[in-house]
Design goal:
Layout lengths: L10 E2 L2 H21 L2 H21 L6 E2 L1 H11 L7 H15 L13 H12 L1 H6 L27 H6 L6 H6 L11 H13 L5 H20 L8 H6 L3 H8 L11 H21 L6 H28 L1
Parallel strand pairs: 1-2
C-alpha cells in the first residue's frame, strides 16, 4: 500500500487540544466528587453527541474529526448544571458543533466559540433548567463518588452569584475548594487556577489573554462595587463565583475564536472579555454574563486583528 492510498486516522491529533483535554480531566473528576456520577453521564452523552455531529459533517468532505471537538464537548458539559436534562445537553452540544463550528467550514474557520454557542442557545431556549437546576454539593469523603446525584432534594439551591447579589457574605474557602452550588466544572476555583496555570506553562493558553481578562474584570468589578451599583459584589468573591474564572481561563483562550494575531490583540481581547462579564452581570437581566461576554468578544476579534495588522503595516511603512 502506497503512502497516497493509506487510510488517514479518523481523528486529527492536535497537541494543544490534547493538552487542554488533559488539563480538564481533574476538573471533570471534581465534578463527579461534588455532584455525583450523573456528572459523568452528562460528560459521556455530550461527548458522544458532539463527536457524532462533527463526524457526520467531516465524512462528507473526507476530512478528519479534530481533537478540538473533545475540548468543546468537555467545556460545554462542565458549564452545565448537574441536574440538566440529558436531552437538553445533547441539543446544546449539537447546536454548538453544527451551527457554531461546522457551518463555518469546520475547525479553524469558526468565528464563535462552539461550546459557548451551544450554551447560549440552550440558555435562551431552556432558561429554567439552566438557571434553577442547581444542587448543594456532596459533603465529606467519598463525596459524590458514592452517590448518583447528592442532595437531590435541594435542586433549587442558590448559587454564590445569587447569594452575593442578595448581599450575603460567602466564605472564600468555600469558593476556593468548590463547596458551593453551581455548574459542574465552575465551582472549585483553586483547581481551575491550577489547571489553567498548567496550560499557560505549556503555552497551550495565552497568559496575555488570561491576565488581561483578570485585570480588567477586577478593575470594572471594583468600580461597580465601590460606587454602590446594585447587586455588585466585592471583586475577589465575584471572580471566584459563577463562571467568570472558568471562562477566562478556558473559553477566552480558545485559539480559533479569540484574537491571536498579535500580542497586543491578545491583551485587548482578554481585557474586553474581563470588562464585559461584570458589565453584563451588573446592568442586564442575565445573572451570569460570561456566556454573552465571550460571544461579543468573538464577534469583534476579527476586526481587532485586522485593525492591528493595518496599524502595524502603516507603522512599518512610515
Amino acid at each position: 500500500m502506497t503512502e497516497n492510498t493509506k487510510k488517514r486516522p479518523l481523528i486529527m491529533k492536535q497537541k494543544i487540544m490534547l493538552q487542554v483535554v488533559i488539563a480538564l480531566i481533574p476538573i471533570s473528576l471534581a465534578a463527579v466528587y461534588f455532584f455525583g456520577w450523573r456528572a459523568l453521564l452528562i460528560l459521556a452523552v455530550v461527548d458522544i453527541v458532539g463527536f457524532g455531529c462533527e463526524y457526520l459533517f467531516v465524512r462528507t468532505y473526507k476530512q478528519q474529526v479534530s481533537s478540538a471537538v473533545f475540548v468543546t464537548n468537555m467545556l460545554f458539559a462542565l458549564s452545565l448544571p448537574p441536574t440538566i436534562p440529558l436531552w437538553i445537553a445533547a441539543v446544546g452540544i449539537a447546536f454548538g458543533i453544527v451551527f457554531g463550528k461546522m457551518v463555518f467550514g469546520g475547525f479553524g474557520r469558526n468565528i464563535f466559540n462552539p461550546a459557548i454557542s451551544g450554551r447560549a442557545f440552550i440558555y435562551v431556549s431552556f432558561g429554567v433548567p439552566l438557571t434553577s437546576g442547581f444542587t448543594a454539593p456532596a459533603a465529606g469523603f467519598p463525596g459524590g463518588f458514592s452517590a448518583w446525584l447528592p442532595n437531590a432534594d435541594t435542586l433549587t439551591k442558590a448559587t454564590p452569584l445569587v447569594e452575593l447579589a442578595q448581599g450575603e457574605k460567602i466564605s472564600l474557602v468555600r469558593l476556593l475548594v468548590g463547596n458551593t452550588a453551581g455548574s459542574m466544572g465552575e465551582t472549585c476555583a483553586i483547581l481551575i487556577l491550577l489547571c489553567g496555570l498548567l496550560l499557560m506553562i505549556q503555552k497551550a493558553a495565552s497568559y496575555r489573554i488570561v491576565l488581561g481578562g483578570l485585570i480588567s474584570f477586577t478593575l470594572f468589578q471594583a468600580l461597580f462595587w465601590y460606587t454602590g451599583s446594585a447587586g455588585a459584589a466585592d471583586p475577589l468573591r465575584a471572580l471566584l463565583s459563577g463562571s467568570a474564572l472558568f471562562t477566562i481561563m478556558f473559553m477566552a483562550t480558545d485559539p480559533i475564536s479569540s484574537s491571536q494575531t498579535t500580542n497586543t490583540g491578545r491583551w485587548i481581547y482578554g481585557a474586553l472579555v474581563g470588562a464585559l462579564i461584570p458589565l453584563i452581570r451588573t446592568f442586564s437581566v442575565w445573572p451570569e454574563g460570561a456566556t454573552f461576554a465571550i460571544l461579543l468578544a468573538n464577534m469583534f476579534a476579527p476586526l481587532l486583528d485586522y485593525l492591528l495588522k493595518q496599524a502595524k503595516k502603516r507603522g512599518a511603512g512610515a
